[in-house]
Amino acid sequence: MDYKDLREAMVRDQLLPRGIRDPKVLWAMEHIPRHLFVDPAVQSRAYDDSALPTADGQTISQPYMVAVMTELLDLRKNDKVLEIGTGSGYQAAILSILAAEVYTIERFADLAEKAAERFRTFGYPNIFVKAGDGSLGWPEEAPFDRIIITAGAPEIPASLIDQLTPQGVLVAPVGDRHSQQLIRLVKAAGELQRTYHTPCVFVPLVGTFGWQD
Ligand code: SAH
């Protein structure tokens, strides 16, 4: 299978027609080998227009959703980024080539370990992974210029807003357990500015400042 061709087709058929325009995001999506982040059983579907299963009943997000969230984050090359919900590690890999450092937290230890192994094996030295409840953030490493939550939250955890730099940007799917909407929050001086974006469906953020399981 020619994965390079499949990646080009993914950008051409899934991302451009739906309005992804940031050249940095398109470049990252065209270069990061998504098939290396999915289980061998679903590798042939790695570039399909859909989410795919990972271990523990979780998912790797649809390529378009990864692209939209990355575009909304508006990354700069010196940014320190926090991701909640490592999953396969694919979104973290995309972030890592557009920013300086990525800190990513996964609730399931086996997924965190598998992602860490992918980062070591495939060469992503600026991604740092830990297993734990990401709804609490990563206080020892705060503040972060950008925060992305890749699991559906009932609301944006205050703990994470606290860990954003001034003018920092946070992107998260917020809603009920079965459907959400992407929210982009900017921590502007004296106020939080929110804008509302595409509807989406993510697995739930389960934790202290998420859903109780
Ligand atoms: N970004 C991932 C997709 C994540 S799916 C990728 O690129 O593949 C959402 C992930 O969030 C799941 O793996 C789930 O286990 C994890 N998750 C849910 N609640 C969490 C929490 N409180 N802290 C950390 N991870 C959480």
Query: Would you identify the CATH architecture?
Result: 3-Layer(aba) Sandwich
- CATH class (first level) name: Alpha Beta
Which series of helices and strands comes N to C? HHEEHEHEHEEHEEE
User: How far is it from the N-terminal to the C-terminal residue, by CA?
Assistant: 40 Å
Give the number of DSSP strands: 9
Give a list of the ligands: S-adenosyl-L-homocysteine
Major sheet description? 7 strands, mixed
* Spans where pLDDT lies below 50 across 5 or more residues: none
Shape: globular
The CATH topology assignment is Rossmann fold
Strand order of the largest sheet: 5-4-3-6-7-8-9
How much strand content do the residues show? Answer: 25-35%
- Determine the oligomeric state from the structure: single chain
CATH superfamily: Vaccinia Virus protein VP39
Could you characterize the architecture of this molecule?
The chain has 6 helices and 9 strands. The protein is α/β, with parallel strands linked by helices and 213 residues long. The chain has a single domain (3-200), classed as 3-Layer(aba) Sandwich (Rossmann fold), CATH 3.40.50.150. The chain has a 7-stranded mixed sheet with strand order 5-4-3-6-7-8-9. Strands 1-2 form a two-stranded antiparallel sheet. α1 (3-15) packs antiparallel against α2 (23-31). The chain is globular and about 50 Å long. The site of S-adenosyl-L-homocysteine has 25 residues, from β2, α4 and β4.
